[in-house]
Amino acid sequence: MELVLHRAYFEEGTNGALFYSGKLLCHTIELPWNDNKRNISCIPEGVYEIEPRFSKRFKHHLILKDAKDRSFILFHPANDALKELQGCIAPVTYLSGIGKGVYSKNAMQKLLALLYQAKDRKEIILLTIKSPLTPEGGI
After folding, report:
1. What is the number of domains present in the chain?
2. 78-93: per-residue pLDDT in tens?
3. What is the pTM (predicted TM-score) of this model?
4. Are residues 111 and 75 in contact, defined by beta-carbon separation less than 8 angstroms?
5. How far apart are CA 25 and CA 110, in angstroms?
6. Could you tell me the CATH number of the domain that includes residue 63?
């Protein structure tokens, strides 16, 4: 299974649109690009394996594997990237501004339902992150 995240970068944050099989699943919010610095930057564009995960803090969520020079990059609910994220990605139902969205928990549930089905089928789940202005990738 492959998900594709198209990003738009702004000084105040990063907005995205997450697709599966060419169909929009949800939008995303992230911190702005800041040279991949831990806790203050979104991660670089590229291809990442993701897996469902559970923790007391975030309950059911997703973790990205092998992010360059980073660890514990998660997909978890948040509605304001600057206030609630430290390098992670938050799915949102609607964008409400740069790095801001609404109904994040609803978008997370939709994403988890899809990914748990793929996991039950023993599929590897890949996330390709790219900029809409540079379809071949790269920042």
Report:
1. 1
2. 999 999 999 999 999 9
3. 0.92
4. yes
5. 8
6. 2.40.440
